[in-house]
Design goal:
mainly beta; 0% helix; 7-stranded mixed beta sheet; 124 residues; 11 strands; 4-stranded antiparallel beta sheet; single chain; globular
Amino acid sequence: QVQLVESGGGLVQAGGSLTLSCTASGHSISSYHLGWFRQAQGKEREFVAVAKGNTGRTWYADSVKGRFTISRDFTKNTVDLQMENLESGDTAVYYCAADGARSWSIRAEQFDYWGRGTQVTVSS
C-alpha cells in the first residue's frame, strides 16, 4: 500500500511560478512510477508529468513541456513539480499518483494510488 500527500498549491498570477511537492510512503517506493495529473472543474483528469520508477526517466504532456519540471528524490521518496510561466489554463486540482505496473502509462486509470490533490489557481 502506498500513501501520497501533496502540498504547495495556491493562488498565483499568470506568468508566475509555483512548486508542488508530493511525499510517498510505503514499501519499495523506488520501483513505482510517480506522476502528476490535474483536473480542471468540469473536465477530465489529464496527465501532466511522470518520473519512472528505478531509472527516474521523465515524460511530459505537450501542454506543459518547457514550463514544468518534475523532480524525484529516491532517497526521500518525494516528487516535486516545478511550474514556471503559469497560464490561466493551468488552473486545476493537481494530484500526485503512483503506478506499480511493469510498464508506465499516461492514462489516469493505470495509476493505482492517488493523493487528495492540491488546488492551483492562476489569475489573469
